[in-house]
Amino acid sequence: MDSQYENELRTLQMRFIGKIIAVFTHEIKNYIAIINESTGLIGDMMKLGKSPENELPVYLDIIHSIEDYIEKTTGHFRYLNRFAHRMDAPLSSFHINESLEELIALINRFANQKRISFKQGYDNDMPPVYGNPSLLQLIIFTFVEKNIMELEQDSTIIMQTAVADKSVLITIIPNGKRVEGSSAPIPTELLDIIIKELGGNISQDRGKNTVIMLPLTSSTA
Amino acid sequence: MKNMKQKFSNLLRDIFHPREIFRVLGKDRYASLKIRIVLLDVLLSMIPLFIVITISYFWFQKILKDDFHKQLNWEIQNTKQTIEFFVDERLSVLRFITSSYTYEQLSDQKILTETFARFKKEFGGLVDFGIIDSSGIQRSYTGPYNLAGKDYSTQEWFQEVIIRSYYVSDAFTGYRKIPHFAVAIKREVPEKGTFWILRATINIDTLQKYVNTVNLRSNDDIFIINREGILQTPSKFHGDVLEKYTAPVTIPRQEILIQELQTSGDDCKICGFATIKHSPWILVTVIRSTPYARIPSIFRNELFFITMGSILLGLIFTIVMANTVVNRIKLSDQDREKAVGQSEHASKMASIGRLAAGVAHEINNPLAIINEKAGLMKDILEVSGNTPDNKDKFLSLISGIAESVNRCRTITHRLLGFSRRMEISQDAIDMNDAIQEVIGFLEKEILYRNIRLELNLQENLPKVITDKGQVQQVFLNIINNAIDALKKNGLINVTTYAKDDKFIGIAIKDNGSGIPKENLKHIFEPFYSTKEKGEGTGLGLSISYGIVQKLGGTILVESEINKGTTFSVELPLKSEGD
Amino acid sequence: MAHTKVLLVDDEKEFASALAERLQLRNYDVKSASNALEALGIVHSFLPDVVLLDLKIPGMDGIETLKAIKKFDSTIEVIMLTGHGDVRSVEDGMKSGAFEYIMKPVDIGELTLKINRASQKKQTS
Questions:
Q1: For A28-66, how does the pLDDT look when each residue is reduced to its tens digit (9 = 90+)?
Q2: Cβ A21–B415 below 8 Å, yes or no?
Q3: What is the pLDDT of residues C22-54, one digit of tens each?
Q4: Under a CB-based contact definition with an 8 Å cutoff, are residues B452 and B490 in contact?
């Protein structure tokens, strides 16, 4: 890849990671805030101490929710960790479904702002793929982000994975009305170069579905 | 002249230190490098070429000249010898006559005339004979003049012939205005203790004949003059017999002298002077057409084309070579920059992984605390219910949870800061804050290893306009190295200072095992690592070095075995780099 | 049945005290230590059945502490408290004789299960 594209790619990657971490951080802050509020609520209730017997189930409930959110936080950090470590090596063996799941989990909050939800249709018999997982996530995110921007509220995005021949297919299906006249720009040229270097390709059909094809083994670095 | 010198030295200076002239090209340093290589090469190759050509030219010219001179010398020698022979022959004839006949016989007019007639037949050019006695009186004479009884006693030639026994005269105008010269022989009569002289006048034509046999080119002249410069034989360009030869004459000390004279015209005049033995004459050869002067001009023309040709060839070749080489350098530089860029990027990416792992790890503890405290509350509630006795306990647990929540917030906040920094690249940075952030990342590690941390951060440190993310990457790397060097227990001292009004400095010092001198000079090299395989890439310091350079700063290391290592980073307040 | 003696070694005092209390409520006899030196001292005097050991404690290396405990009394079972991503330490720990590991934040049910199993193992040895 020539150096101009290299630089563009690096900038794109940095922005992508920045966005993911930003969304993640907001989510975690949210969880922590809930924990904080819940704890504060118990404290307040105890200080007021009106009817102790009735409050017991309430307290237990709140504590249960606190424990829930602690687990959510820990789980979310696990996703971040996995996501971050995909960048350690340019090529590695990874599971597409896992990497998609983690990506969707990390950007869920972002989609939720427009009440857009994700549905998954993953092929469970997916073999592991040898390639560049972080670049793949970058490409997928670009298209998902575009769809999120262009769809109306309460829409859904379906993520499908399937095996075909010696490759895997990832399909992003926007399900909902498009906002009038919206068109979020994406660096198609750069993305094409990236996917080609990985040995795959990107195609879009009339239904505005995006299909990303990736060979089971990426031959080029 | 001085102006030219100044201009020339300016030109030299510009070529080797591109300034205004090459500023446009200087923007593309490869183009300027190519030009410098070509110029230098051409100059260096032209100099010996010119030296060789000049030497060859002059050497060749000298050879030709020497050759020509040798040839000329030989020709003059030949002519001189011929004329000398002619003279000697005439003298011999007279001697023969004086030995064959007596004074008495030849004093007889009739015998003299007869003898004269006979010799005249054999030796062309004889004009007259005369017998002169010891007192200088002409006793008998045969010839066209009326010279019988003439007294020669006072004449110079008479004195000379007495002394030398022979005499050859200069030319003089004679019978019918035809130039003649005279030869005379003294015959000693030992039994009578006296002498007599036989004198003959000879036509200059005969002499001329010998001179004219010399094969000459049209522009050349050969003639005989006497010591006073009077022409004895006619000259092509310089006058007729008995006229004065006006050009400068050098009487040779040895027999022949060849002189090169520069005339006002282009051509070089060569004069050959040769003394004719037994005569008062000097043979003069004037060569105007020096073939060796012409040959070099032909040589010069061909030489010119050859020189131009080879310069052109050399120039083309040098340009092609310089182009190829510099292009290769350019490519390899680009490759290297690309590789460095790639590894920087890879390192950045890897650091994200570390960051995420670090944060995830850190947040575990406060989360665990919240979990336990909430769990404990649950346990107490389940066991003993919501009794007033427990109230205080609960409140303290709740406040404990709140504290941990705050910790979580701080830790998470760092992540947010990091994500924002992925966008900004130039900001006014408070280096103290930046360092403290980095230390924040590594706090747990430092505490865990029981390392003491000393911070000497200068107050009111001037802000630096630079890329915070990159600068922090450098500090992260250096402090990480310090931690690794110390393993457990030890001291890390971080000092910030304002070096001067243009730079600030950050010194990170550890009191670990130090770095041996041999390793010190390699420490910033890529892939240089003293860690075991699998631990560290060895890229950290070289990337840090690259970053600091790009930001316009310097990074130095000092170390002493068993005393410790200090890394000093100096950064300009206004970064000119990327 | 005697209460199972548990030594909790963790440098996070807030965490340790809360957890210790929770375990006390569940009838375990719990003592806490916040660094390796203290821990070893208590091992010698308290003679716990099970040690809950956070690997990232200051002072001696967590693994070394584990080895020291096993050296003192190999029947004492050690359960490692780890954060996520500490895979290598866990491996090392298991190789050095740890019984089990549990990740923070801790699920109290899971923890008590593991403590009981460890204690059972100790009794049978």
A1: 988 998 998 888 888 888 877 666 667 788 888 889 999
A2: yes
A3: 898 889 999 999 989 999 999 999 999 999 999
A4: yes
Contact by Cβ (8 Å): C99, C118: yes
pLDDT digits (tens, 9 = 90+) for A164-208: 888 999 999 999 888 887 777 888 888 999 999 888 999 988 768
- Which chain B residues touch C59 with a CB distance below 8 Å? 450
- The DSSP symbol for B548 reads H
Do the Cβ atoms of B381 and A59 come within 8 Å? yes
Q: C121: distance to nearest CA of chain B, Å?
A: 26
Q: Which residue carries 């936080």 as its tokens? A: A73
Q: List, as one string, the DSSP characters of B77-90.
A: HHHHHHHHHHHHHH
Indicate the pLDDT class of residue B538, thresholds 50, 70 and 90. low
Query: What is the total count of domains within chain B?
Result: 3
Q: What CATH number did the domain enclosing A48 receive?
A: 3.30.565.10
Q: Does residue B514 register a pLDDT over 50?
A: yes
Domain count, chain A: 1
User: Nearest residue on chain C to A78, judged by CA atoms?
Assistant: C84
- CA-CA distance, B443 to B450, in Å (whole number)? 11
Q: Identify the pLDDT of residue B292.
A: 62
Is residue B52 located within the same domain as residue B99?
A: no
**pLDDT score for B424:** 53
- Tell me which residue range forms the domain holding B506: 424-578
* Inside any domain, residue B385: no
Which residue in A70, A78, A81 is closest to C105 by CB distance?
A: A70
DSSP state of B235: B
Whether A25 sits inside 8 A of B367 (CB atoms) is no
Range of the structural domain that residue A9 is part of: 1-221
Residues B322 and B471 occupy one common structural domain: no
* Percent over 90 (pLDDT), chain B: 11
Nearest Cα residue to A140 out of A87, A102, A92, A177: A102
Which of C84, C102, C103, C108 is the best substitution to test chain A (most A C-beta atoms within 10 A)?
A: C84
* pLDDT at residue B440 greater than cutoff 80: yes
Indicate if B178 and B274 belong to the same structural domain. yes
Strands B172-173 and B194-203: unpaired
Query: Can you give the CATH number for the domain in which B562 is found?
Result: 3.30.565.10
For residue B40, pLDDT beyond 80: yes
- Residue B509 to residues B455, B494, B554, C15, Cα–Cα distance (Å): 10, 6, 16, 35
Q: How far is C100 from chain A (nearest CA, A)?
A: 21
- pLDDT at residue number C85: 67
The interface pTM score, or ipTM, of the predicted complex is: 0.87
Residue A1: which pLDDT band, with cuts at 50, 70 and 90?
Answer: low
Q: Are residues B50 and B81 in the same domain?
A: no
Specify the DSSP element, H or E, that contains B267.
Answer: none
Domains of chain C: 5-124 (3.40.50.2300)
Q: Say if residue B95 is in the same domain as residue B222.
A: yes
Q: Clarify whether residues B113 and B190 are in a common domain.
A: yes
By CA distance, what is C16's nearest residue in B? Answer: B369
Per-residue pLDDT of B223-243, as tens digits, reads: 888 888 888 888 888 788 888
Name chain C contacts of B404, Cβ cutoff 8 Å. 14
What pLDDT sits at residue B25?
42
Closest alpha carbon within chain C to B377: C22
**Of the candidates A15, A70, A81, which has its C-beta nearest B357's C-beta?**
A81
In angstroms, the CA A209 to CA B77 distance is 113
H helix count then E strand count, chain A: 5, 7
Nearest to B367 among C21, C58, C105 (CB): C105
Q: Are residues B489 and B541 in the same domain?
A: yes
CA-nearest residue of chain B to A80?
B356
CB contact under 8 A, C84 and A70: no
Query: With 60 as the cut, is the pLDDT of residue B306 above it?
Result: yes
Please check whether residue B188 is in contact with residue B110, taking contact to mean a CB–CB distance below 8 angstroms: no
Could A39 and B334 be called an inter-chain contact, meaning their C-beta atoms sit closer than 8 Å? no
Res A209 pLDDT > 70? yes
Structure confidence at residue B23 (pLDDT): 44
